[in-house]
What we know:
heterodimer
Amino acid sequence: xxxxxxxxxxxxxxxxxxxxxxxxxxxxxxxxxxxxxxxxxxxxxxxxxxxxxxxxxxxxxxxxxxxxxxxxxxxxxxxxxxxxxxxxxxxxxxxxxxxxxxxxxxxxxxxxxxxx
Amino acid sequence: xxxxxxxxxxxxxxxxxxxxxxxxxxxxxxxxxxxxxxxxxxxxxxxxxxxxxxxxxxxxxxxxxxxxxxxxxxxxxxxxxxxxxxxxxxxxxxxxxxxxxxxxxxxxxx
Lengths: 116, 110
C-alpha cells in the first residue's frame, strides 16, 4: 500500500527554523516526484515545489523560491521542506504529494503554526 | 505565474449535472494536456479525481469527467450526490516546468 506519512504539527516562533518531513512507503521512492503544497487557513491550495528523490532535481514555484528549501534523503525514503527563518505568514497546513504533474497519493498534512 | 481562474462557487441539486471551469493561458492549460482536478472535503487531504485532462484514477466514479478547449479546462460532475459537496481545484503543468493551482471552487449540493 502506497503511503506518505508526514511529521507532526509544529508550533514555532517567528525567526525560528523548521524542517518537516514526508516518508514514502509501499513504492519505489526514487522513481516518483514528491511535491509540497501549502494551504493557508481558509484558503486554497498552492504548489510550492517538487523534488525527484532519484537525483534530487528540484523545482520551485516563483512564489516560494528563496523562501523554502526542498530536499530528500533517498536512503530513508524521506522528503523535506524547511525554513531558515519562519514568519507568521508561514502559518498553514503543508501537504506532500506523489507525482510531477498529477498527485495520486497525499500525506495527511503537517500543520505549522508560527506565533510569538 | 498566476493562479488558474475558477468560479468561486457552483451549486446544483441532487441528480443534476454541474461543470466547473478552469481558465489559464497558452503557457499552461492551453499548452499541455496535463490538467488535473482534485476534490477536497473539509479537514481532509485533496484527492485526485482527473488527470491528463480526461483520465480518471482507479476507484473514481465515472460521474466525474474532464475536458479541455483552448485555454479552458472543465470538470463535469453528473448525477450530483450529497457526498460530492466539497472544494474542487484544477492544476496545470506550465512552461516553467512547474505546476499551478486554480483558486478553487466550492460545490454546494442543494
